[in-house]
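On to my pick:
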Amino acid sequence: MSHPVADTRRFSRVAWGVLAYNMLVVLWGAFVRATGSGAGCGNRWPLCNGAMVPRAPRIETVIEFTHRATSGLALVGVAALCLWAYRLFPRGHRARTCAALSVVFLIVEALLGAGLVLLQYVEHNASAGRAAYLSAHLVNTQILLAMLTLTAWFGCDPVARPWPRAPKLLVAALPVAIVVAVSGAIAALGDTLYPAASVAAGMRQEFSQTASVLLRLRAVHPVLAVVGAIILLAAAMTAMRSTRASAVRMGVVVAALVFLQLAAGAVNIVLLAPVWMQILHLLLADLLWVALVVTTLEAGREL
């Protein structure tokens, strides 16, 4: 006979694994955008150039099709996790609710991804509509990752935990992190569409009277990143003053990731945003977001 604690710990480990896999899918999606491969399957969805599996594909097609395939596996994994949560936990357990919401937001994620293709917000499209759509996509992605984080966190205990009452500064830091992430996604799109020959040339592009909206928004991101970093560091310090050792540790992790992210942003600018650096920058942003969510939960957890 299985033991409830062992079962929930196994569920939590798998849930963290599902979260990690979804983060990889998100990174591959950024690779699709950074390499201009969003139209690799044409303007067809879910078919790829009119076929389930493309034959003799171009490299752009391979990149885009791989993203679609891995996204499909992510949906299967999250759906299986949700079914497991409903079998393992009693009614009212928050792991159930968060797992179900993870499925909902992943479906929305897939539909938003399809919209990028069908609306042709890919390749060299530099419209304001693409920037707005990309922002909505990013917000949904962050919520999805948060739901999977909550599923893993609540799922480690067979007894339903009450919703944590976190310090207000930590709660306020969550939307701040999302705003900074959205500005970063728009800046990355600007880097892809308007590559600069040098840092000085890039600044001239951004402050030119004829600069596009994307270029002007790209200039805003470093300012928002610094302001956001100050707020996130203050939130991390709040967690470090907690009486819970786990909250203190997570506060340290958040602070370390904030400094790493600032350094990565500076390197990204100096190196003129190469694809590999954009992916690393996004990875750190996602790790910081997950760490911030966990810190908020741990700081607000009742003893």
